[in-house]
């Protein structure tokens, strides 16, 4: 039966995606960038929309939520998966509302007045069937995919507005967004980059060699020297793994130290993060700081048995230390992040 | 040959062009020169000699002057009575016991000469050193006033000045005792230096400084060669360890030293030590503690009375060195431990960074005194010294945790105190220590965790510094390369044009990050360092 085939095919794909997520978290698989993960998640959701059996928007949302919970459980630190799911859920809500003919996008904002007077938006449990809903949703997801493709370019286009000549820029670890940002600026400006290597994985080394290929003057420093050289740095530009709902960051370990050092020297800290990294999580949730890697990456000696060793992967950076967010929709202050988030995700989807 | 009453005359050695100090002891009324006068004489002569050595132009003039005034060069002092009436009005004026000469003409002549030197110097050179020299030469004439600390720029911080480099090479060549064939080699820099640090040396561990020394090394004592190699390869590291090793090696050198004829131990030994010190600083720049130790030794050597027999003098010097090590390092660490243990309470979680011998000692002592605490050892690449500290503490039985410095923000909420060691304490209150210390102090301050620095007083130095750039040390940049899964990204960093690796050794921590400094004199705030220095100077 073609339907059953499609279903098994679909569930196979979902399973393989889940296992890949699990694997790349442990470092055994190839390290993917967040952009790739976001694209693959969205493509998978499009496939689910196209091939799964659902009658109305409510059922579709249920299916997506279920798969989404499984995906986020497979790799909790990879928040782009959850973000894309929430985006798609929001798309479905919007398309549904548009099909119903009411311009109820604005209803979704909770205002005190609306709460008192209407009280009826929750009746809308998406049970109506619309024939064109599927096509509309798939088209909207395609638009989302296009947006995802262009995020890095959109961010790099803004590079020249932020970097002047003869600057000394500091960065940490390896971020593809920041790499593209700096390479774009290097086409017209001459500046110097200092990369902190970010032990124990030393992704900073890769970043440095990649920047050198574009003839950017690069220096690699060990993490311990961050404060020592900070006094000569004009700007700090970093990438991040996740942008949290309060405007804080969950970034690679060592970023909090970097941010404190920049604050001490009053150096601006600029975060280049595309919008798909924005997550409705707040800092108190578990997996806030940590995802501990196995400690044999840092200690090889036999006294490992008598000693506790910690190797956290992420750091929390509070929003007070951040000066600017540069994303594909432009530059924003950290205090504005909550607003952007309400535009991207529906409040009911914050908990999948 | 020094005769019985210690009179001697040096002369001009035409072969090398080096001018030995001229010293005439006048024994007119049977009175010996007083010790202070002798010291002052020596200081003036040293200053004179230093001025002459640094200027190319004036030395020729000085040589001529001296040759003219000493008609019988390099003759032993058998003709000392004849020399008493030596037609050397210029040099007779230098000796303080020229009792027949009125003091006024001596001062006049000296002032005249100095003025002439200054004018020659400033006219010949427009260099920055000129200004500093003329500033430093005059104040040295008044030893009893407040010693100013305007010093010349140390050589290891002048790598970007090609003329200074040439001078250093010449000086190393000249540091030879007679009949030399080898000289102290000049070590060449390695690799691309980051532009901000092009004024510092950067050596590679793969090219040891002994490659250019001929065998046998007549200039440099073999134990000094060994010490230099140990420094440059990193076998002896850590400020206390380096100082103690240096002092022990000097003991060996003094043991093997024999005063050549016609020389005095107090003068000649100091001369002998100078090429050794140059060699050691080529191997690895001297630390502040080593600098202080060397100053102490030189002072002790110069204070040896001239009538002391050689064996006695050597024994005295060795005893001095032993007592220095004992007082300043060993007993000091006992005193510091006593103070520090008061600050450790039960249930504490103590964070330490890298491997400081003093901090390890404190923790071991506190553990012996049955304090209940646990330790978090923070480590950093590329030196990874924390592993050594971890090993020592675990051997004692202390509960330890180990993290890298990038995990600092993760681990700091658990910490109750931070103990840091120091390489030197500067006169403006800044703490110079292993790179990464300032970072730890910064983050600890952000989390409101008290930071205690433990430092012996012999590491206090009169330098001032506000950032980690001007006076630092660059280690071998190849240390930053790491191979993971068989790949190392930075392997051929030399071939890539725009890539530089920076391996700093020290950094300075501002005093507002440090809450307390524990020294053998007690617990002081960071800003009291110049007070301690002044007290120490007055004592000496």
Automatic annotation (TrEMBL), chain A:
Superkingdom of this protein's organism: Eukaryota
One of the protein's GO biological processes: central nervous system development
Keyword check for Cytoplasm: yes
Keyword Protein biosynthesis: yes
Keywords for the protein's UniProt record, in alphabetical order: Cytoplasm, Initiation factor, Protein biosynthesis
Gene3D superfamilies per UniProt: Translation initiation factor eif-2b, domain 2 (3.40.50.10470)
Pfam families per the UniProt record, alphabetical: IF-2B
Record-level Gene Ontology MF annotations: guanyl-nucleotide exchange factor activity; translation initiation factor activity
Gene Ontology cellular component list: cytosol; eukaryotic translation initiation factor 2B complex
UniProt subcellular location: Cytoplasm, Cytosol
Subunit: Component of the translation initiation factor 2B (eIF2B) complex which is a heterodecamer of two sets of five different subunits: alpha, beta, gamma, delta and epsilon. Subunits alpha, beta and delta comprise a regulatory subcomplex and subunits epsilon and gamma comprise a catalytic subcomplex. Within the complex, the hexameric regulatory complex resides at the center, with the two heterodimeric catalytic subcomplexes bound on opposite sides.
Family the entry assigns: Belongs to the eIF-2B alpha/beta/delta subunits family.
UniProt function note: Acts as a component of the translation initiation factor 2B (eIF2B) complex, which catalyzes the exchange of GDP for GTP on eukaryotic initiation factor 2 (eIF2) gamma subunit. Its guanine nucleotide exchange factor activity is repressed when bound to eIF2 complex phosphorylated on the alpha subunit, thereby limiting the amount of methionyl-initiator methionine tRNA available to the ribosome and consequently global translation is repressed.
Name of this protein: Translation initiation factor eIF2B subunit beta
UniProt organism field: Cyprinus carpio
Gene name for this UniProt entry: LOC109080935
Automatic annotation (TrEMBL), chain B:
Keywords noted in UniProt: Cytoplasm, Initiation factor, Protein biosynthesis
UniProt-annotated stretches for the region Disordered: 27-144
Localization per Swiss-Prot or TrEMBL: Cytoplasm, Cytosol
GO cellular component, one term: eukaryotic translation initiation factor 2B complex
Residue ranges with Basic residues bias: 40-51
Entries under Pfam families matching the protein: IF-2B
Composition bias, Basic and acidic residues: 29-39, 52-68, 101-123
Domain of life of the native organism: Eukaryota
GO molecular function, one term: translation initiation factor activity
Xref: InterPro entries: IF-2B-related, IF_2B-like_C, NagB/RpiA_transferase-like
Membrane-traversing stretches: none
One BP annotation, GO: central nervous system development
Compositional bias (Low complexity): 81-100
Quaternary data: Component of the translation initiation factor 2B (eIF2B) complex which is a heterodecamer of two sets of five different subunits: alpha, beta, gamma, delta and epsilon. Subunits alpha, beta and delta comprise a regulatory subcomplex and subunits epsilon and gamma comprise a catalytic subcomplex. Within the complex, the hexameric regulatory complex resides at the center, with the two heterodimeric catalytic subcomplexes bound on opposite sides.
Function: Acts as a component of the translation initiation factor 2B (eIF2B) complex, which catalyzes the exchange of GDP for GTP on eukaryotic initiation factor 2 (eIF2) gamma subunit. Its guanine nucleotide exchange factor activity is repressed when bound to eIF2 complex phosphorylated on the alpha subunit, thereby limiting the amount of methionyl-initiator methionine tRNA available to the ribosome and consequently global translation is repressed.
PANTHER family: TRANSLATION INITIATION FACTOR EIF-2B, TRANSLATION INITIATION FACTOR EIF-2B SUBUNIT DELTA
Protein name: Translation initiation factor eIF2B subunit delta
Source organism of this protein record: Cyprinus carpio
């Amino acid at each position: 039966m073609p339907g059953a085939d499609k279903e098994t095919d679909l569930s196979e794909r979902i399973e393989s995606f889940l296992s890949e997520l699990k694997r790349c978290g442990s470092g055994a698989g190839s390290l993917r960038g967040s952009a790739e993960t976001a694209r693959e998640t969205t493509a998978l959701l499009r496939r689910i929309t196209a091939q799964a059996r659902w009658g109305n928007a409510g059922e579709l949302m249920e299916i997506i939520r279920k798969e989404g919970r499984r995906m986020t459980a497979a790799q909790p630190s990879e928040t782009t998966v959850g973000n894309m799911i929430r985006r798609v859920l929001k798309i479905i809500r919007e398309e549904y509302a548009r099909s119903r003919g009411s311009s109820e996008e604005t209803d979704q904002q909770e205002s005190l007045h609306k709460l008192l007077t209407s009280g009826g938006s929750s009746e809308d449990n998406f049970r109506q069937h619309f024939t064109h809903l599927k096509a509309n949703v798939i088209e909207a997801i395609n638009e989302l995919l296009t947006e995802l493709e262009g995020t890095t370019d959109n961010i790099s286009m803004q590079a020249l507005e932020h970097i002047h000549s003869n600057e000394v820029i500091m960065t940490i670890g390896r971020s593809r967004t920041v790499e593209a940002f700096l390479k774009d600026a290097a086409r017209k400006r001459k500046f110097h980059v200092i990369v902190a290597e970010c032990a124990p994985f030393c992704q900073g080394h890769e970043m440095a060699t990649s920047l050198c290929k574009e003839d950017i003057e690069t220096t690699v420093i060990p993490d311990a020297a961050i404060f020592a050289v900070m006094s000569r740095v004009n700007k700090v530009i970093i990438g991040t793994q996740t942008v949290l709902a309060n405007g804080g960051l969950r970034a690679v370990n060592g970023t909090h130290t970097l941010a404190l050092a920049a604050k001490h020297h009053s150096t601006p800290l600029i975060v280049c993060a595309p919008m798909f990294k924005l997550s409705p999580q707040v800092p108190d949730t578990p997996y806030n700081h940590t995802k501990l890697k196995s400690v044999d990456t840092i200690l090889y000696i036999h006294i490992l048995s008598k000693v506790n060793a910690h190797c956290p992967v992420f750091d929390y950076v509070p929003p007070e230390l951040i000066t600017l967010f540069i994303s594909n929709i432009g530059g924003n202050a950290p205090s504005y992040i909550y607003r952007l988030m309400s535009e991207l995700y529906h409040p009911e989807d914050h908990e999948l | 040959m020094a005769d019985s009453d210690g009179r001697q005359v040096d002369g001009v050695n035409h072969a090398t062009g080096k001018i030995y100090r001229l010293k005439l002891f006048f024994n007119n009324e049977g009175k010996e020169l007083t010790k202070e006068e002798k010291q002052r004489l020596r200081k003036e002569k040293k200053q004179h000699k230093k001025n002459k050595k640094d200027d190319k132009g004036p030395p020729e003039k000085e040589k001529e002057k001296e040759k003219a005034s000493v008609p019988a060069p390099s003759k032993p002092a058998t003709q000392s009575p004849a020399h008493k009436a030596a037609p050397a009005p210029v040099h007779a004026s230098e000796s303080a016991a020229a009792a027949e000469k009125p003091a006024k003409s001596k001062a006049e002549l000296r002032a005249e000469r100095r003025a002439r030197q200054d004018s020659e110097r400033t006219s010949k050179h427009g260099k920055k050193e000129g200004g500093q020299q003329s500033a430093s030469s005059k104040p040295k004439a008044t030893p009893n006033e407040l010693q100013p600390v305007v010093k010349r720029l140390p050589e290891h911080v002048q790598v970007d000045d090609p003329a200074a480099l040439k001078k250093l090479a010449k000086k190393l060549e000249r540091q030879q005792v007679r009949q030399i064939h080898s000289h102290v080699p000049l070590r060449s820099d390695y690799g691309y230096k980051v532009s901000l640090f092009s004024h510092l040396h950067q050596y590679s561990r793969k090219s040891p400084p002994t490659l250019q020394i001929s065998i046998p090394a007549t200039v440099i004592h073999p134990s000094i060669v060994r010490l230099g190699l140990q420094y440059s390869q990193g076998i002896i590291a850590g400020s206390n360890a380096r100082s103690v090793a240096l002092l022990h090696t000097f003991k060996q050198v003094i043991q093997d030293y024999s005063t050549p004829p016609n020389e005095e131990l107090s003068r000649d030994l100091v001369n002998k030590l100078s090429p050794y010190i140059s060699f050691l600083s080529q191997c690895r720049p001297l630390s502040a503690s080593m600098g202080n130790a060397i100053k102490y030794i030189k002072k002790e050597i110069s204070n040896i009375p001239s009538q002391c027999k050689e064996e006695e003098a050597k024994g005295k010097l060795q005893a001095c060195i032993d007592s220095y090590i004992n007082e300043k390092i060993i007993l000091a660490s006992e005193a510091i431990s006593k103070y520090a243990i008061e600050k450790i309470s039960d249930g504490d979680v103590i964070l330490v960074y890298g491997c400081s011998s003093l901090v390890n000692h404190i923790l071991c002592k506190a553990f012996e005194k049955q304090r209940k605490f646990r330790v978090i050892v923070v480590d950093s690449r590329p030196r990874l010294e924390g592993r050594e500290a971890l090993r020592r503490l675990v051997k004692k039985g202390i509960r330890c945790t180990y993290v890298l410095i990038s995990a600092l923000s993760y681990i700091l909420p658990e910490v109750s105190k931070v103990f840091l060691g120091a390489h030197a304490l500067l006169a403006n209150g800044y703490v110079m220590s292993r790179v990464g210390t300032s970072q730890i102090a910064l983050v600890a301050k952000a989390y409101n965790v008290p930071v205690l620095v433990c430092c012996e007083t012999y590491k206090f130095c009169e330098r001032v510094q506000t950032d980690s750039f001007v006076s630092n040390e660059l280690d071998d940049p190849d240390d930053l390369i790491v191979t993971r899964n068989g790949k190392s990204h930075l392997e051929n960093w030399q071939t890539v044009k725009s890539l530089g690796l920076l391996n700093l050794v020290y950094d300075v921590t501002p005093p507002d990050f440090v809450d307390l400094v524990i020294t053998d004199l007690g617990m002081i705030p960071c800003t009291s360092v110049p007070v301690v220095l002044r007290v120490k100077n007055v004592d000496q």
